[in-house]
Amino acid sequence: MAKLPSDAVLAKLYHLGLSDAEIAQQYGARPGSVNSRLVLLNLRRRPVHARVNALLATIWDVKVDRDGGETHHNAYPIRYLKVYLRLRLGDETISATERMKAGRLIRRLVRENKVIHYNTEKEGGWEYVPRLPSDGRRVLRWPENQALPDQVDLQRAMELPEETQGGPAA
Fold first, then answer.
1. What is the largest CA-CA distance in the chain?
2. What is the pLDDT of residue 6?
3. Please, are residues 169 and 110 in contact by the beta-carbon 8 Å criterion?
4. pTM of the entire structure?
């Protein structure tokens, strides 16, 4: 039986971008064994999650308090905005419940003609604000002083689904 490297070495290889198969080949192990160890180290390959989090981090510095104080990172609007963006980017790991809640969020935005906005001064941080012409079809308020991402798929992910163009989604 092959022996995988120490946790520190395995984590380094992961962060260098080597796939499970590449690491397994180096150590004569199975890719599944590598993946199991990475999961134990809380290192998971979730590229769509990473893209969504990176996108939102470019526009919002969401309040997180690791000492038990007020935090905004897990409130309903941001949780299901992230799910919606992942869905639009083709993430196949989204559960039926998450899809339903993301759909509910989008229907609300369409019905009320609003977008999601993060306001650090507001209790809870998140608010639904009236849609402005500058919002276009986006589901979130993009800061005026911030350039949109270059990637077209990210820009499209932030938009309402096509079926809502003529009116509220079902």
1. 63
2. 92
3. yes
4. 0.69
